[in-house]
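Entry 0007
Protein: Carboxylate--amine ligase
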Amino acid sequence: MKFLPIILGTDVNAYGIARSIHMAYGIKSLCVGQGKLPMTNHSKIVDIEVVNDLANPSVFSTAMIPLLKNKLEAYDKLILFAASDGYAELVIDNQEELSKYCRLPFVKKELKEQLILKEDFYDLCEKLELPYPKTMKVTKDNYREIEVPFTYPVVVKPSNSVTYALAEFKDKKKAYILNSEEEVTETLFNIFTSGYGDTMLMQDFIPGPDSNMRVLNAYVGSNSKVHSMCLGHPFLEDVTPTLVGNYVAIKSIFDADIYETYTRFLEGISYTGFANFDMKYDERDQTFKIFEINLRPGRSSFYSTLAGCNLIEEAIKDLVEEIKVEEAFLSREEKLWLGVPKEVVLTYTEDDTCKQVAKEMIDRDDYGYTLFYDQDKSIVRNLSMKKYYQSYVERYEKWFKKKGR
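Output (structure tokens):
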């Protein structure tokens, strides 16, 4: 059977999806996006089609259907992946029409509405007794009068990451750790006067370094049963202002309790498709508290493939090959995934134990990168990827600072 994987996006996550497919099936994927980015450009494992303004909902619906119809003339089946929140939401909103032409590893639209906004997701967590940080909702109408109910520092982040991504203003960050009332007021003023009109969330800051974080990637089959899961222990976060909250060093680990808790959650809400969770261990009450769920593979999710848990392959087995899974695969293999140069990890990882573990795994060559792939080399690509990773040396010199504890 001849099938074509189509990936929405051309960034590092898109490449990770394409590489996972190439490792499992030895075939090229098609990346469709608004432009060519270095991560997928000059690659032997992807073709790229550029569609101007593809992230615009009206353009997306009119552009994708003819594209899918055209591709179906040469393939038996198509399967569609999304490399970003915005594309995932567009697919889900148009899934009735898209599903006529391709397989879709996504949640149903009705469930998306309960998950896409963090404030609604936390309501669901409350109902299903999944711990999350203490949270207060802030709007453009009340932000000038709010009284901060938490001790500083506090976290401020958007409830709707999709509409927030469209807002433009000075010193924009994915999330903020703020240390005073003045910082809170100034940050919220900048956000709400930028055109962002949805809710912002203010949260109790959970103290501790990046090494207290955990990231969980899962694929849940079309029967709403978990097919595979891989847990990661982040050692270091991205410091790039627009990428704060993304990880750049992850060790894959095993934790039976977390696997059990999130299997119960996903199957309990009849989830389907990819799920990506971020959580942090709160030493004050000895619990892992959930921050958010992403309805697509996480930006750093290639750590799962590196650890022998190829979630993208699981989706293809489920929806294209229609192979039944009798038992969930819960990853146990330990690998170190890096999204920055080795020296950055060994210099800026705050936890000494994690830093030593990273050094040992690097020394025994037990690590890997998303963008360095033996089957996808050329002089132009190698130079471009080295330049991309090396840019992180300067980013950490410029932006790194220890977090509040």
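Curator remark: Residues 142 and 360 are 51 Å apart (CA to CA). The first helix runs from residue 12 to 25.
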